[in-house]
Design a protein that fits this description.
Layout (H helix, E strand, L loop, with lengths): L1 H17 L4 E6 L3 E3 L2 E3 L2 E7 L6 E6 L5 E5 L2 E4 L8 E7 L2 E8 L5 E4 L9 E8 L7
Antiparallel strand pairs: 1-4, 1-11, 2-3, 4-5, 5-6, 7-10, 8-9, 8-11, 9-10
Length: about 130
């Protein structure tokens, strides 16, 4: 019986660890768009979507509203860039996420679109959170 309980506990721990995905929190002081979804200023949780691809889930901590963002390009960033941050490009009174730094162990997620000269870049720092249990 003890052996079975140990096996069940070890399996549960392994599944819980495997299901943990990179996650962080950010406080955005301006409204922004995720695809066609308009998100108000506020606090958000950003994580890799459960489908495992390079799709990110942005979820409001206030009301649970969420949207998904395809960020297909993923590159390693230099060790000198240790900060976790989200870069927005704002044009014509609309801001969109263009890059996310260090959400997942030193990787850069990017939409792959070059910033337009007329656009303004806004940077928002990500706060702690490496797994969904933090």
């Amino acid at each position: 019986m003890k052996t079975i309980l140990k096996a069940v506990m070890m399996t549960s721990l392994a599944v819980a660890g495997f299901g943990a995905e990179p996650m962080a929190k950010l406080k955005v002081g301006f409204p922004f768009a995720v695809g066609s979804t308009k998100m108000p200023a506020g606090e958000y949780r950003i994580s890799i979507a459960p489908n495992g691809g390079r799709t990110l889930k942005i979820e409001s901590m206030a009301n649970g509203q969420s949207a998904f963002l395809a960020m297909p390009l993923q590159d390693l960033i230099p060790d000198s860039q240790t900060g976790k941050k989200v870069e927005f490009e704002c044009q014509a009174q609309e801001c969109k996420i263009t890059r996310i730094f260090n959400l997942d162990r030193g990787y850069l997620f990017s939409t792959g679109k070059k910033a337009k000269a007329a656009g303004e870049r806004m940077i928002v720092q990500l706060t702690t959170g490496n797994t969904k249990t933090e």
